[in-house]
Amino acid sequence: MKILFRILALTLGLFSALAQADLTIEIDQSSSSAQPIAIIPLATVAGQKAPKTDIAKIIGLDLYRSGKFKALAVSKLPAQPKGIKDIHFQQWRSLGVDNILLGKIARNDQGNYDIEMRFIDVLRKQEVMAKQWSNIPEHLLRQIAHQMSDLIYQELTGIRGAFNTKIAYVTVNKKLGKRQYTLEISDSDGFNAQPILKSKHSIMSPSWSPDGKKLAYVTFENGHSEIVVQSLDGSYRKIVASYKGINGSPAWSKDGKKLAMTLSKNGSADVYIMTLATKKLRRMTRNYAIETEAVWSPNGHSLFFNSDRRGQPQIFQAFLDTGETRRISFDGRYNANPAVSPDGRYIAMVHFNKGFHIGLLDLYTSEFNVITDTYLDESPSFSPNGEMILYSMNYKGSARLAVVAIDNSVTQILSVQDGEVRSPSWGPYRN
Question: How confident is the model over 257-269, as pLDDT tens digits?
Fold first, then answer.
Protein backbone atom coordinates (compact mmCIF):
# COMPACT_ATOMS: atom_id res chain seq x y z
CA MET A 1 0.00 0.00 0.00
CA LYS A 2 2.96 2.38 0.56
CA ILE A 3 3.76 2.12 -3.15
CA LEU A 4 0.13 2.89 -4.02
CA PHE A 5 0.08 6.02 -1.85
CA ARG A 6 3.38 7.21 -3.34
CA ILE A 7 2.19 6.68 -6.88
CA LEU A 8 -1.08 8.48 -6.17
CA ALA A 9 0.92 11.43 -4.85
CA LEU A 10 3.00 11.49 -8.03
CA THR A 11 0.01 11.07 -10.35
CA LEU A 12 -2.46 13.44 -8.71
CA GLY A 13 0.05 16.16 -7.87
CA LEU A 14 -1.04 16.01 -4.20
CA PHE A 15 -4.50 17.48 -4.73
CA SER A 16 -7.96 17.09 -6.21
CA ALA A 17 -9.42 20.06 -8.09
CA LEU A 18 -13.13 20.76 -8.31
CA ALA A 19 -15.47 20.57 -11.32
CA GLN A 20 -18.59 19.31 -13.13
CA ALA A 21 -19.89 20.21 -16.60
CA ASP A 22 -21.32 22.14 -18.35
CA LEU A 23 -18.50 24.62 -18.07
CA THR A 24 -18.27 28.38 -18.32
CA ILE A 25 -15.25 30.27 -19.62
CA GLU A 26 -13.23 32.96 -17.88
CA ILE A 27 -10.08 34.76 -19.01
CA ASP A 28 -7.29 34.46 -16.45
CA GLN A 29 -4.53 36.20 -18.34
CA SER A 30 -4.37 37.84 -21.74
CA SER A 31 -1.97 38.57 -24.56
CA SER A 32 -0.98 42.09 -25.56
CA SER A 33 0.37 40.73 -28.86
CA ALA A 34 -2.85 38.99 -29.95
CA GLN A 35 -3.96 40.05 -33.42
CA PRO A 36 -7.31 41.89 -33.47
CA ILE A 37 -9.99 40.17 -35.52
CA ALA A 38 -13.58 41.17 -36.19
CA ILE A 39 -16.20 38.46 -35.66
CA ILE A 40 -19.48 39.97 -36.81
CA PRO A 41 -22.63 38.42 -35.23
CA LEU A 42 -24.32 36.23 -37.82
CA ALA A 43 -27.07 38.03 -39.69
CA THR A 44 -30.57 36.56 -39.43
CA VAL A 45 -33.48 36.51 -41.84
CA ALA A 46 -36.07 39.22 -41.29
CA GLY A 47 -38.69 38.01 -38.85
CA GLN A 48 -36.54 35.19 -37.45
CA LYS A 49 -34.93 35.20 -34.03
CA ALA A 50 -31.28 34.34 -33.63
CA PRO A 51 -30.70 30.91 -32.04
CA LYS A 52 -29.66 30.75 -28.39
CA THR A 53 -26.25 29.46 -29.43
CA ASP A 54 -24.09 32.51 -30.12
CA ILE A 55 -21.82 31.25 -32.89
CA ALA A 56 -19.79 34.46 -33.14
CA LYS A 57 -19.06 34.45 -29.40
CA ILE A 58 -17.94 30.82 -29.47
CA ILE A 59 -15.57 31.54 -32.37
CA GLY A 60 -14.14 34.55 -30.56
CA LEU A 61 -13.41 32.53 -27.43
CA ASP A 62 -11.92 29.69 -29.46
CA LEU A 63 -9.50 31.97 -31.28
CA TYR A 64 -8.61 33.82 -28.09
CA ARG A 65 -7.70 30.54 -26.40
CA SER A 66 -4.96 30.03 -28.98
CA GLY A 67 -3.17 33.14 -27.71
CA LYS A 68 -2.82 34.52 -31.24
CA PHE A 69 -6.09 36.37 -31.82
CA LYS A 70 -8.45 38.66 -29.96
CA ALA A 71 -11.95 39.33 -31.24
CA LEU A 72 -13.20 42.88 -30.89
CA ALA A 73 -16.03 43.22 -28.41
CA VAL A 74 -19.38 43.56 -30.15
CA SER A 75 -19.87 46.94 -28.46
CA LYS A 76 -16.63 48.19 -30.08
CA LEU A 77 -17.42 47.11 -33.62
CA PRO A 78 -17.62 50.28 -35.75
CA ALA A 79 -20.18 48.55 -37.99
CA GLN A 80 -21.84 45.20 -38.56
CA PRO A 81 -21.60 44.68 -42.34
CA LYS A 82 -23.69 41.90 -43.90
CA GLY A 83 -21.58 41.56 -47.03
CA ILE A 84 -18.24 42.59 -48.48
CA LYS A 85 -19.92 45.52 -50.28
CA ASP A 86 -20.87 46.97 -46.89
CA ILE A 87 -17.29 47.04 -45.60
CA HIS A 88 -15.45 50.36 -45.36
CA PHE A 89 -11.95 48.90 -45.25
CA GLN A 90 -10.12 52.00 -44.00
CA GLN A 91 -12.45 52.03 -41.00
CA TRP A 92 -11.22 48.57 -39.98
CA ARG A 93 -7.59 49.23 -40.83
CA SER A 94 -7.55 52.12 -38.37
CA LEU A 95 -8.39 49.59 -35.65
CA GLY A 96 -5.57 47.27 -36.68
CA VAL A 97 -8.06 44.65 -37.93
CA ASP A 98 -6.72 42.54 -40.78
CA ASN A 99 -9.61 40.08 -41.06
CA ILE A 100 -13.38 40.10 -40.74
CA LEU A 101 -15.76 37.16 -40.41
CA LEU A 102 -19.23 37.64 -41.86
CA GLY A 103 -22.05 35.13 -41.74
CA LYS A 104 -25.73 34.39 -42.08
CA ILE A 105 -28.01 31.95 -40.32
CA ALA A 106 -31.57 31.06 -41.30
CA ARG A 107 -34.08 28.58 -39.94
CA ASN A 108 -35.47 26.30 -42.65
CA ASP A 109 -38.79 24.51 -43.05
CA GLN A 110 -37.51 21.48 -41.10
CA GLY A 111 -36.77 23.67 -38.08
CA ASN A 112 -33.03 23.32 -38.57
CA TYR A 113 -30.49 25.93 -39.67
CA ASP A 114 -28.69 26.86 -42.89
CA ILE A 115 -25.44 28.68 -42.16
CA GLU A 116 -22.99 30.64 -44.27
CA MET A 117 -19.58 32.10 -43.43
CA ARG A 118 -17.36 34.44 -45.40
CA PHE A 119 -13.86 35.40 -44.31
CA ILE A 120 -12.52 38.73 -45.54
CA ASP A 121 -8.91 39.91 -45.85
CA VAL A 122 -9.03 43.62 -45.08
CA LEU A 123 -5.62 44.42 -46.55
CA ARG A 124 -6.39 42.72 -49.86
CA LYS A 125 -10.03 43.83 -49.78
CA GLN A 126 -11.22 40.43 -50.85
CA GLU A 127 -12.93 37.28 -49.67
CA VAL A 128 -10.40 34.52 -48.96
CA MET A 129 -12.70 31.78 -47.71
CA ALA A 130 -16.38 30.86 -47.83
CA LYS A 131 -18.34 27.84 -46.63
CA GLN A 132 -21.94 26.77 -46.14
CA TRP A 133 -23.66 24.25 -43.88
CA SER A 134 -27.20 23.04 -44.50
CA ASN A 135 -29.97 21.63 -42.30
CA ILE A 136 -28.02 21.75 -39.03
CA PRO A 137 -29.99 20.90 -35.84
CA GLU A 138 -29.70 23.45 -33.07
CA HIS A 139 -27.80 21.07 -30.78
CA LEU A 140 -24.99 20.91 -33.37
CA LEU A 141 -24.53 24.67 -33.74
CA ARG A 142 -21.63 24.71 -31.26
CA GLN A 143 -19.85 22.10 -33.35
CA ILE A 144 -20.31 24.23 -36.47
CA ALA A 145 -18.87 27.20 -34.58
CA HIS A 146 -15.79 25.14 -33.66
CA GLN A 147 -15.44 24.05 -37.30
CA MET A 148 -15.49 27.71 -38.34
CA SER A 149 -12.81 28.45 -35.76
CA ASP A 150 -10.64 25.65 -37.13
CA LEU A 151 -10.99 26.96 -40.70
CA ILE A 152 -10.08 30.50 -39.66
CA TYR A 153 -7.13 29.35 -37.55
CA GLN A 154 -5.68 27.31 -40.41
CA GLU A 155 -6.23 30.12 -42.90
CA LEU A 156 -4.33 32.59 -40.70
CA THR A 157 -1.58 30.36 -39.29
CA GLY A 158 -1.19 27.44 -41.69
CA ILE A 159 -1.70 25.15 -38.69
CA ARG A 160 -4.74 22.91 -38.39
CA GLY A 161 -7.15 24.15 -35.73
CA ALA A 162 -8.03 21.93 -32.77
CA PHE A 163 -11.25 23.50 -31.50
CA ASN A 164 -13.61 20.89 -32.95
CA THR A 165 -12.20 18.17 -30.72
CA LYS A 166 -13.14 16.46 -27.46
CA ILE A 167 -11.67 16.32 -23.96
CA ALA A 168 -12.12 13.68 -21.26
CA TYR A 169 -11.94 14.07 -17.49
CA VAL A 170 -13.17 12.47 -14.26
CA THR A 171 -15.59 14.22 -11.92
CA VAL A 172 -16.43 13.31 -8.34
CA ASN A 173 -19.64 14.34 -6.60
CA LYS A 174 -20.86 13.62 -3.10
CA LYS A 175 -24.49 12.56 -2.81
CA LEU A 176 -25.95 11.57 0.55
CA GLY A 177 -22.43 11.23 1.91
CA LYS A 178 -21.34 8.87 -0.87
CA ARG A 179 -18.98 9.62 -3.72
CA GLN A 180 -20.11 9.31 -7.33
CA TYR A 181 -17.35 9.10 -9.95
CA THR A 182 -18.11 9.96 -13.57
CA LEU A 183 -15.91 9.64 -16.60
CA GLU A 184 -17.05 12.38 -18.99
CA ILE A 185 -16.23 13.70 -22.44
CA SER A 186 -17.08 17.16 -23.69
CA ASP A 187 -16.25 19.63 -26.43
CA SER A 188 -12.80 21.19 -26.20
CA ASP A 189 -14.26 24.23 -24.44
CA GLY A 190 -16.03 22.06 -21.85
CA PHE A 191 -19.57 22.28 -23.19
CA ASN A 192 -21.86 19.40 -24.22
CA ALA A 193 -20.55 17.08 -21.50
CA GLN A 194 -21.61 13.43 -21.82
CA PRO A 195 -21.09 10.71 -19.20
CA ILE A 196 -19.21 7.62 -20.38
CA LEU A 197 -19.17 5.74 -17.08
CA LYS A 198 -20.61 6.29 -13.61
CA SER A 199 -19.30 4.38 -10.62
CA LYS A 200 -19.18 4.50 -6.84
CA HIS A 201 -15.50 3.52 -7.15
CA SER A 202 -12.56 5.65 -8.20
CA ILE A 203 -11.83 6.29 -11.88
CA MET A 204 -8.42 7.63 -12.90
CA SER A 205 -6.10 8.45 -15.81
CA PRO A 206 -8.29 8.44 -18.95
CA SER A 207 -6.30 8.07 -22.16
CA TRP A 208 -7.69 8.44 -25.70
CA SER A 209 -7.13 5.84 -28.40
CA PRO A 210 -5.58 7.35 -31.54
CA ASP A 211 -8.84 6.98 -33.49
CA GLY A 212 -10.80 8.76 -30.74
CA LYS A 213 -13.26 5.86 -30.40
CA LYS A 214 -12.08 4.37 -27.11
CA LEU A 215 -10.70 5.37 -23.73
CA ALA A 216 -8.35 3.43 -21.48
CA TYR A 217 -8.61 4.28 -17.79
CA VAL A 218 -8.07 2.95 -14.27
CA THR A 219 -10.95 1.70 -12.15
CA PHE A 220 -11.21 0.30 -8.60
CA GLU A 221 -14.62 -1.34 -9.01
CA ASN A 222 -13.34 -4.79 -8.02
CA GLY A 223 -11.56 -3.58 -4.91
CA HIS A 224 -8.18 -2.92 -6.50
CA SER A 225 -6.78 -0.98 -9.45
CA GLU A 226 -7.48 -2.36 -12.93
CA ILE A 227 -6.99 -0.96 -16.44
CA VAL A 228 -10.07 -0.94 -18.64
CA VAL A 229 -10.51 -0.20 -22.34
CA GLN A 230 -13.98 1.06 -23.25
CA SER A 231 -15.59 2.34 -26.44
CA LEU A 232 -17.29 5.73 -26.26
CA ASP A 233 -20.57 4.25 -27.49
CA GLY A 234 -20.56 1.67 -24.68
CA SER A 235 -20.57 -1.32 -27.04
CA TYR A 236 -17.20 -2.57 -25.81
CA ARG A 237 -15.65 -2.68 -22.35
CA LYS A 238 -12.81 -4.97 -21.28
CA ILE A 239 -10.42 -5.21 -18.34
CA VAL A 240 -6.96 -5.54 -19.89
CA ALA A 241 -4.76 -5.43 -16.77
CA SER A 242 -5.72 -6.79 -13.35
CA TYR A 243 -2.43 -7.96 -11.91
CA LYS A 244 -1.52 -8.13 -8.24
CA GLY A 245 -0.59 -4.68 -6.96
CA ILE A 246 -0.76 -1.53 -9.06
CA ASN A 247 -2.30 -1.35 -12.51
CA GLY A 248 -2.11 2.27 -13.57
CA SER A 249 -1.33 5.12 -15.98
CA PRO A 250 -2.40 3.63 -19.35
CA ALA A 251 -1.19 5.38 -22.51
CA TRP A 252 -1.91 4.36 -26.11
CA SER A 253 0.74 3.87 -28.76
CA LYS A 254 0.25 5.87 -31.95
CA ASP A 255 -0.95 2.80 -33.89
CA GLY A 256 -3.48 1.88 -31.17
CA LYS A 257 -2.08 -1.63 -30.82
CA LYS A 258 -0.26 -1.21 -27.50
CA LEU A 259 -0.65 0.37 -24.09
CA ALA A 260 2.15 1.63 -21.88
CA MET A 261 1.22 1.18 -18.22
CA THR A 262 2.57 1.00 -14.69
CA LEU A 263 2.47 -2.41 -12.98
CA SER A 264 3.88 -3.56 -9.63
CA LYS A 265 3.19 -7.26 -10.09
CA ASN A 266 6.89 -8.04 -9.55
CA GLY A 267 7.24 -5.86 -6.45
CA SER A 268 8.35 -2.43 -7.61
CA ALA A 269 6.23 -0.11 -9.74
CA ASP A 270 7.70 -0.22 -13.25
CA VAL A 271 6.74 0.76 -16.78
CA TYR A 272 5.51 -2.00 -19.08
CA ILE A 273 4.21 -2.17 -22.64
CA MET A 274 1.25 -4.43 -23.37
CA THR A 275 0.41 -5.66 -26.87
CA LEU A 276 -3.39 -5.58 -26.70
CA ALA A 277 -4.05 -8.38 -29.18
CA THR A 278 -1.99 -10.92 -27.20
CA LYS A 279 -1.70 -9.31 -23.73
CA LYS A 280 2.03 -9.90 -24.01
CA LEU A 281 4.03 -7.64 -21.69
CA ARG A 282 7.42 -6.03 -22.17
CA ARG A 283 9.07 -4.60 -19.07
CA MET A 284 10.73 -1.28 -19.84
CA THR A 285 12.15 -0.30 -16.43
CA ARG A 286 13.68 -2.25 -13.56
CA ASN A 287 14.20 -0.08 -10.52
CA TYR A 288 13.13 -0.05 -6.89
CA ALA A 289 11.92 3.53 -7.39
CA ILE A 290 8.42 4.45 -8.56
CA GLU A 291 8.37 4.48 -12.39
CA THR A 292 5.03 5.74 -13.70
CA GLU A 293 3.04 8.08 -15.99
CA ALA A 294 4.68 6.80 -19.19
CA VAL A 295 3.73 8.50 -22.48
CA TRP A 296 4.85 7.67 -26.01
CA SER A 297 7.08 9.76 -28.21
CA PRO A 298 5.26 10.60 -31.46
CA ASN A 299 7.52 8.31 -33.51
CA GLY A 300 6.88 5.40 -31.11
CA HIS A 301 10.58 4.78 -30.53
CA SER A 302 10.69 5.78 -26.87
CA LEU A 303 8.69 6.45 -23.73
CA PHE A 304 8.87 9.43 -21.39
CA PHE A 305 8.04 8.63 -17.78
CA ASN A 306 8.23 9.88 -14.22
CA SER A 307 10.64 8.33 -11.72
CA ASP A 308 11.83 9.18 -8.23
CA ARG A 309 15.02 7.11 -8.60
CA ARG A 310 17.00 10.27 -7.78
CA GLY A 311 15.01 10.84 -4.59
CA GLN A 312 12.59 13.36 -6.12
CA PRO A 313 10.32 12.89 -9.17
CA GLN A 314 12.01 13.67 -12.51
CA ILE A 315 11.28 12.90 -16.16
CA PHE A 316 13.24 10.15 -17.93
CA GLN A 317 13.23 8.74 -21.46
CA ALA A 318 13.48 5.02 -22.25
CA PHE A 319 14.34 3.87 -25.79
CA LEU A 320 12.53 0.79 -27.06
CA ASP A 321 15.30 -0.45 -29.37
CA THR A 322 18.21 -0.33 -26.92
CA GLY A 323 16.54 -0.15 -23.52
CA GLU A 324 18.72 2.86 -22.72
CA THR A 325 17.24 5.24 -20.14
CA ARG A 326 18.28 8.85 -19.72
CA ARG A 327 17.16 11.75 -17.55
CA ILE A 328 15.33 14.59 -19.35
CA SER A 329 14.35 17.13 -16.67
CA PHE A 330 16.95 19.03 -14.65
CA ASP A 331 15.24 22.27 -13.61
CA GLY A 332 14.05 22.06 -10.01
CA ARG A 333 13.63 19.19 -7.59
CA TYR A 334 10.16 18.06 -8.70
CA ASN A 335 9.05 17.33 -12.28
CA ALA A 336 6.31 14.81 -12.97
CA ASN A 337 3.29 13.93 -15.13
CA PRO A 338 4.95 14.32 -18.58
CA ALA A 339 3.01 15.04 -21.78
CA VAL A 340 4.59 15.12 -25.24
CA SER A 341 3.62 17.56 -27.99
CA PRO A 342 2.41 15.92 -31.23
CA ASP A 343 5.55 17.02 -33.10
CA GLY A 344 7.81 15.67 -30.35
CA ARG A 345 9.46 19.00 -29.67
CA TYR A 346 8.04 19.83 -26.24
CA ILE A 347 7.56 18.01 -22.96
CA ALA A 348 5.00 19.53 -20.62
CA MET A 349 5.23 18.52 -16.97
CA VAL A 350 4.11 19.38 -13.46
CA HIS A 351 6.94 21.45 -12.01
CA PHE A 352 7.30 22.50 -8.37
CA ASN A 353 8.74 25.90 -7.58
CA LYS A 354 6.86 27.74 -4.85
CA GLY A 355 3.82 25.74 -5.91
CA PHE A 356 2.82 23.21 -8.56
CA HIS A 357 2.78 24.72 -12.07
CA ILE A 358 3.01 23.52 -15.67
CA GLY A 359 6.52 23.64 -17.08
CA LEU A 360 7.47 23.32 -20.74
CA LEU A 361 10.77 21.85 -21.90
CA ASP A 362 11.93 22.43 -25.49
CA LEU A 363 13.82 19.28 -26.44
CA TYR A 364 15.43 21.06 -29.42
CA THR A 365 17.00 23.88 -27.40
CA SER A 366 16.83 22.50 -23.81
CA GLU A 367 15.05 25.73 -22.81
CA PHE A 368 12.67 25.31 -19.87
CA ASN A 369 9.88 27.71 -18.91
CA VAL A 370 7.06 27.70 -16.41
CA ILE A 371 3.98 28.66 -18.43
CA THR A 372 1.25 28.84 -15.76
CA ASP A 373 0.82 30.90 -12.62
CA THR A 374 -2.33 29.14 -11.42
CA TYR A 375 -2.54 27.05 -8.25
CA LEU A 376 -1.90 23.33 -7.74
CA ASP A 377 -1.64 22.54 -11.46
CA GLU A 378 -1.61 18.94 -12.69
CA SER A 379 -2.29 16.56 -15.61
CA PRO A 380 -1.08 18.54 -18.66
CA SER A 381 -2.40 17.32 -22.02
CA PHE A 382 -1.55 18.81 -25.44
CA SER A 383 -4.13 19.77 -28.03
CA PRO A 384 -3.73 17.63 -31.18
CA ASN A 385 -2.07 20.55 -33.01
CA GLY A 386 0.35 21.15 -30.12
CA GLU A 387 -0.59 24.81 -29.74
CA MET A 388 -2.42 24.59 -26.38
CA ILE A 389 -2.26 22.58 -23.16
CA LEU A 390 -5.24 21.44 -21.11
CA TYR A 391 -4.63 20.93 -17.40
CA SER A 392 -6.41 20.91 -14.05
CA MET A 393 -5.89 23.39 -11.26
CA ASN A 394 -7.43 24.83 -8.12
CA TYR A 395 -8.22 28.48 -7.53
CA LYS A 396 -9.55 29.62 -4.15
CA GLY A 397 -11.15 26.23 -3.67
CA SER A 398 -13.36 26.54 -6.73
CA ALA A 399 -13.70 24.10 -9.62
CA ARG A 400 -11.35 24.62 -12.51
CA LEU A 401 -10.02 23.15 -15.71
CA ALA A 402 -7.78 25.43 -17.75
CA VAL A 403 -6.23 25.78 -21.19
CA VAL A 404 -2.96 27.65 -21.70
CA ALA A 405 -1.31 28.63 -24.98
CA ILE A 406 2.17 27.12 -25.19
CA ASP A 407 3.71 30.57 -25.51
CA ASN A 408 2.18 31.46 -22.12
CA SER A 409 0.21 34.29 -23.71
CA VAL A 410 -3.32 33.32 -22.71
CA THR A 411 -4.99 31.15 -20.10
CA GLN A 412 -8.69 30.35 -20.28
CA ILE A 413 -10.24 28.86 -17.17
CA LEU A 414 -13.11 26.44 -17.67
CA SER A 415 -15.29 26.53 -14.55
CA VAL A 416 -17.85 23.84 -13.79
CA GLN A 417 -20.82 23.80 -11.50
CA ASP A 418 -19.90 21.40 -8.69
CA GLY A 419 -17.88 18.31 -7.79
CA GLU A 420 -14.19 17.47 -8.12
CA VAL A 421 -12.29 17.16 -11.38
CA ARG A 422 -9.07 15.34 -12.20
CA SER A 423 -7.11 13.78 -15.03
CA PRO A 424 -8.14 15.87 -18.04
CA SER A 425 -7.07 14.46 -21.40
CA TRP A 426 -7.33 16.14 -24.82
CA GLY A 427 -8.62 13.84 -27.54
CA PRO A 428 -7.36 13.44 -31.11
CA TYR A 429 -8.73 15.10 -34.23
CA ARG A 430 -12.13 13.89 -35.32
CA ASN A 431 -12.02 11.76 -38.47
Answer: 999 999 999 989 9
